[in-house]
Every structure is written in C-alpha cells, then in structure tokens.
Amino acid sequence: MRFFIDIDWIKPMLQDIRKSTRGTTAKVIIGVIVLSFALFGIESILVGGNSNSVAEVNGEPVTPIELQQVVDTQRRQIISMMGENLDPAMLDEQRLNSAALESIINRKLLMQAATRLGLTVSERELGVMISGMEQFQVDGRFAPDMYKGLLASAGYTPGTFKRALKDDLILSQLQAGLSGSDFATPAELALNARILAEQRDIRYLTIPLARFRDDAVVDESAIEAFYADNQSMFMTPESVELNYVELSLDDFREPVAEAAIEEEYRIEAQSYQYQDENRVSHILLEQRSGESDEALAERVARVQAELAAGRDFAEVAAELSDDIGSAGSGGDLGFTAGDAFPDEMEEAIAALEVDAVSAPVKTEAGIHILKVTERREAGAPSLAQLRPELEQRVQERQAKLALLSTVEKLRDLAFTADSLARPAEELGLEIKRSEPLLRDQPTGPLSNPQVLRAAFSEDVLERGHNSEVLELPDNRFVAVHLHRYNPAAVQELEAVREDIAAAIIEQRAREELAAAAEQAMEAIGSGEGVEALATRLGYEWQVELGARRDSRMVPRAVLQRAFALAAPATEPVVDYVVEPGGDARVVQLLRVTPGDLARLSREEQRGLAQRISEEYGAIVQVEHQQGLLADADITVF
Amino acid sequence: MDSFRTEEEQVEAIRRWWDENGRSTLVTIVLVLVAVFGWQGWQRYSDERTATASDVYQRMLEAASAAGQGTQATTELERLAGVLRSDFGGTVYARFAALHLASAAVAEDDLETAETELRWVLGKASTGSEIAAVAQLRLARVLAAAGETGQALGLLEEGGNGDYRAAYLLARGDVLAAAERNEEALEAYREAEAVVQAYPAQLNVETLQAKLQSLASPAPASSKGES
C-alpha cells in the first residue's frame, strides 16, 4: 500500500500547531489526529481516489475485475444452459456487461443494507461450513488439497472464496429474516381457499376451424381487393449488399522456429503447476515474554537433542511445540508447493531430504525445526510431450501480433480511402461480396449485430464511406462498404396470390366459425342440451365437474373463460372462446362451489399456506431491493 | 522561534513548559488512550456478541427449515429464537428471531403471541427501517385475522406509502375481501398488481391474480370474446 501525504497542506497546519503549543485548540487538534489514526488507521485522512472503477454504488466502487468475473460466470452459465441452441447474440459483450453490472449493483446494495443492520457471519461458522461441504471432502473428511485445487480451478483463492461465501451467507440471513419469516394467517387461508379451491361444473363443446376452411371458394376480385387494401402486408424488407474485406487469425499462422518452442518450454517448466509439493511438519518455539535469548536457545537445543536421540518427531512436537494448532497432529502443516510459508522456511524445506530434520530456521513467528514427511515429485513433462501445445500457443501468439498490426494498417487505410479497393490492394486482401443482408440478418458470415449496425449506419449507407474495422468473435476483423441498397418494396400480386387466397379463406372461416359458435350459444341458451347439440351437429363435447383454477384436465382457454364468467343465478351461463389455434369452444357454466378450507386435506392446507406466505415474502423481497435502488446513489462511468 | 543561548537555558525552558503544561498534557494523553482502547474494546466485544448471535441464528434457520417435518424442530426453533430475543436483544438477530417466532405462532393459530412478538419488533426497530415496515405489515395482517379489521386497515393505511406498497396493498385487499367489502378489495388488488407489474423483476403473484379475477365484475353472460 502506498500513501500520498500532501505536504503542502500538512506543513502550515503543523506550523500553526507549533506556534500555539500552549493553546488548548492545539491539544484538541492533536488529540483528534491521534484518535483518528488509532481508530481508523492512517488511510482515513488520506484521500485515495479510485479512478479506474466502472461504477459506484453509494460511494463503493465496482472494479473492472469484479465486473469481468461476473460476466465470465454468466457467459459460462449461458453456454452450459443453451448448449447447441446457443444464440450468439446472447453472448453480446455489451448485453452481458449491463446485466452483470445490474446484478453487482443489486448485490452491493443488499450487502450495504445487511451491514447497516449489523448482520455478520463468524469465522467459526465459515470454517464449519467449508469443511462440511461435500465437494471438498474425500472419504467423508475435509481435504485441504482438494479444497485449494477446486478453488483455483474456479478462479478463487481461499481468501476470496471465504469472502464470497461470507457474503452469500449474510445475504441469505437477510432474506430469511425479512421474507423467509412470512406467514399465512387463518383469515388469509380461509379467503384464499374460498377462491383458489373454488370449483366450477362445466360442459364445453369444440367447433373445429378446419371445418369452415375446406368449403371456401375465393374469386379473383376478392384477391385483388385484398391486395389493394393490405399493401403493408406484402412488403419485402430493405436489405444491403456489401463489399467487405476480412482478416482472421488463421491467415497469419506461420511455422514456429524451434528456438521459440524451446524458450517457451523453459518458461513453462518453471511454472507453479510443475513444482514439487512437500508435506511439512514443524516444531515451533516462540520467544515467551520475558524469556531471554539464551533460554530460548536452550529450548531449541533441547528439542534438537531429543530428536538426535531418536525420539519420534510427532511426539516431540506434541510435547514441546508452541504451535498449538499443529502440535496435536504431530506438527503437520500440510502440503506446500513453495509458496505457502515464509521464504526462509520454503528454502529450508526445498533443501531437505524426505524424513530429514532441518537446523533451526528463524521466521517472524519464532524458531522452527522442520521435517519433510512426504514429497510429491511433479516434474514438468518432457519437451516432446508438451510440444504440440506449446507450438500452438507460440504460433497463436505470433499470429495475433501479426494480425493486430495488419488490423492497425487496415484501420488507417480504410479510414482514408473512399472504397475498399486500395486497402485490399495494399494488404493483399480479397474483396468479398455479401448476400443481401437484412437489418436483423439471422445467418451468414456477416450476421453480427455490430456489422449490421455499421452496414445500416448513416456513414456507410448514405455517405458511402468505408465502415470502421469491426472486431468479431474468434479473432475476426472486417471492414465493409456498400455495394447496393435494396429498398423495401411491395411484392407483385402474382408472387403473393396464393398467400392472399389462403388469408381470405382463413378470414372467412373464422367469421363462419364465430357465427356457428353464436348459433350454438343461442341454441343452448334456449334450452337445447350441450350433448344433444353436439350430436346433432357432429361436434365433440366434454363435461368437467368440480374443475379448479389449476385443473389440468380442461384446456387453458376454456378454464380461463369458465372462471371469468359470473356465477349462474338460476339458469346455466353460456359463452364461447376462440383458442389460439383457431378452434372455438362453447362453454356452459352450470354451478359454482366456493372453496372451503375445512374440506381441504392437511397436505393441501399446508401447500396453500406456503403459497400465500411465499407470495407475500417474494413481494417483500423485491420491494426491499427496489427501495434500496430508489434511495441509492449510483454512478456508472 | 528564538534560538536559546545556552543548553541550560534550553533545559530551563523545557522545564518551565513542563511545569505549566505537563499535567494537562498527561491528562490529555491518558484520556485519549482510555477513549481509544475503551472504544476498541467495546467494538471487539460487540462484534463478538454479534458473531455469536449470528451463529445461533444460523442454527435457528436450520431448525426452521426442518420445522415443516415435526414439532421437535419447531420447539428447537422457538428455543433458539427465545435465546436470541432475551440474550441478544440489541442485535438485529433478536428482531429477526421475533419475526420467526411470530410466524411460528401464526402457524399454530396463536395470534396473541404473534401480536406480542410483532409489537416487540416494532418497539425495537427504528421507524422507517425495513424491519419496522415488514413488522407493521404483519401486525396488521395478524390483527385482521383476530377480527380487528379497523385497526388493521389503519396500520396498512399508515405504512402503505413506503417501499412496500404492493405488499401493503395485497394485505389491504385480503383484509377487505375477508370482510366482504369486495369493491374496495378489488381496487386494492388492482393497484397491487399494477405496482408489481411495474417492477423489473418477474414476480409470481398467482393468488393475487386469482383473487383479482374472482372479484372482478364478471363479464355479462352474453358477451363473446376471443382469448
């Protein structure tokens, strides 16, 4: 950490203080300074501007790293959720960014609220939680190696993981306290049972649309009239045909020199993942308060003597080590790959043979006597083994450099030239021609939102300039230039004649269907039974007694209509509804029975109580979040 | 500042200064130190208390999630919540515990206990805080269930313009519908739905929608419409 003390304002203040050492003011000032240092540390009075945050939530910065982490997580989730049906537009960086930022802001707001309320989670609880997680266990026991390995592969360190887990727990406490404690009162249960468990007896018959489609005949004049009246239905959308040049990583792949691969191997072999791991035990001797250096040295010597006499290291550790944490387990500290302990210790560990005991090593904690109990040799694979991977890596890196420098050249050329001819010639690129592209072109090499936006932009479309060089996924870059614009146009009658005929038939069929449904309603209203009518006209019919709002036996549309109808006074009520598919259902409502809590099973009662309390709880939760957002001071940079 | 001619004079000056100011300087230092360490000690103590309360609350939540399965868990929940209420009364966990106790009491039809707990929370939580708003909402619902419709409506009226408008309106609708004041209930439900719809978050409000549909003045039997 670095501190920036602004001498210019501190100096006059100190002079003032010196001038008036006798004044009480000065004493008060000194007191305040001492107090503020002691309480909040020196940072408190030094303004540390954080200029590279992407947003601020009530003064708390959102860092780019934080944002990127959430974006990455969301991207992974989308990819694993969608699999092959993935729509690349869903991975649009801007969209992901704003969604991620929103979720970070919401989380920060909740965390701030939780902190304000004084919610916390103890280190004890976190420890219990982590060691109880099955993912980190081997044979039912917590395995520290597994823990660190899994965290590392998910991009966490133990520190950041604990922090995140702590936040999660705090948020779940907040949610449990505020909305998880909701309930359903007896009055609410009775009311909701009356409505949600209401039963309706209904009959309904189905008039299929297909019946009226078949016998419709369309004459020419009707088609022409329809064509004239509905021109907007027969427009072909506008499109553009583009010239474009493209740069991609693959164009720049070159054979890799042997020396470069060897250099890469040398660096790779030193990397963390190939370091040996050592399991270490230690005996720690701390200088006790009042203990002289000689006395401490004597204790060290005693430990060394015991060990030299052949006593078991674990026994000696249990008896003499000042490290209470490890003394009980024979001094065991677990594995290190060279980075877990202070450098002095790591150096000694690296030099030790397995089962050998070290000379005393001094660190800030005290004096250690070390023993390596196990060594996992994890030497780097040979050059031959790693060659394909390294070769590809180097090749890609070199290709990327070449690509980017060419992209820079293309940028300059495309900006200054009035067509793509010169840039293409100078860089030796081929000018390609696109198919006609719509504003929302779904397929093809240029079906990218950025490209389409550029293609239809004022610059390209109206002024006829080259577009900027656009970066597409997978290391592709393109620049486009308008070849031809095809405006929206009305299609010829001949091209759409059949569509029109079909549309007219559909329209007439629907009218006839409605008329038939009206007739059926009338007949039923004047006393003909649903069954008799259905038999007379050849319709299918059904009866459902005691249908509920959530009944699955009755088609959705029928159910909704049946529950929207007023309860019949004496005579049954009739109505009809057209399904989204086009068929009509004539519905007769016979009887309404209000729900009764007492007649629900225990199970149903419990379910109902849960629905009510969850609904209240969910609303409270959303409104809490909403309220925090409304009161918040949020800046997005 | 003048430079002193001899060392003796310098010593003398320091001594004089000390005679005049020594006592007050010492007192200031001592007071500052006492304040600092006292404050830090208190901070540590109360952090430790909160952490312990948090542990107990975590156990209580475990009991709560098991409470559906048997009375033993409910008893455990009530015991732990009671500990939080009595031993950690100043922490937020005590207020949360009381909200859970109220919930457990309502589930056992013990509206009186629920009322007591909620009133206790209202007394502890600062007005305008989220906990106070939630406790007031629930108190109104409990009172309504106990037949105090007027009082309940009063409480809902009073708190209904804060952050929790939809929840308050839903409760208002429930209270009115239970009292068979259907027209007013319908109006409250409609408003509640409009508020919920305006939120960006997707909320599942099935019971609200069912109640709305049921109370909405039904379409005349002769109307024909398309869905």
From TrEMBL, chain A:
GO cellular component terms given for this protein: plasma membrane
Main localization category: membrane
UniProt keyword annotation of Membrane present: yes
Keywords, sorted A to Z: Cell inner membrane, Cell membrane, Chaperone, Isomerase, Membrane, Rotamase, Transmembrane, Transmembrane helix
SUPFAM superfamilies in the record: FKBP-like (SSF54534), Triger factor/SurA peptide-binding domain-like (SSF109998)
Gene Ontology molecular-function annotations: peptidyl-prolyl cis-trans isomerase activity
Bilayer topology annotation: Single-pass type II membrane protein
Transmembrane segments: 28-48
Pfam families hit by this protein: Rotamase (PF00639), SurA_N_3 (PF13624)
Annotated family: Belongs to the PpiD chaperone family.
Protein name: Periplasmic chaperone PpiD
Organism whose genome encodes this protein: Kineobactrum sediminis
Organism placement in taxonomy: Bacteria, Pseudomonadati, Pseudomonadota, Gammaproteobacteria, Cellvibrionales
UniProtKB/TrEMBL annotation, chain B:
GO MF: protein-containing complex binding
Pfam family, one: TPR_21
UniProt keyword annotations, A-Z: Cell membrane, Chaperone, Membrane, Transmembrane, Transmembrane helix
Cellular component GO terms, alphabetical: plasma membrane
Domain called Ancillary SecYEG translocon subunit/Cell division coordinator CpoB TPR: residue spans: 15-216
Top-level taxon of the source organism: Bacteria
Transmembrane segments: 24-42
Membrane topology of this protein: Single-pass type II membrane protein
UniProt-annotated location(s): Cell membrane
Record-stated family: Belongs to the YfgM family.
Name of this protein: Ancillary SecYEG translocon subunit
